[in-house]
Amino acid sequence: MNKRFFFDLSIGILGLIAVIIFGNAGLSVLALFVFYPLFKKKKPDERELQLFYKTGNITAALTLAAAVVIWYLSGKTVNGHLIGDNWLPLIAFSFLLVHGISGIIIFKRG
Hints:
mainly alpha
């Protein structure tokens, strides 16, 4: 399961950087999800499912906090791209980044 969270984390980081640099063209990073089935486990046990649901709850709360930060910075321009114009890709990649980080931490701590 940790491979899956590292994959989410890496796509989240690459996606945020790509959207900040290239704007909407940075969404092409989502094409990397074609490799996602390689990291999926066939049958997780009960403990893994419980930790995965806990990760989802924490991810939802932290993604909401990231959305508030993105909304607050929506008037700023980075590399000629207005953050407010790219709010949805930024929130999506923030979700992946937070999901990867929280999953790695929760699965290590138990």
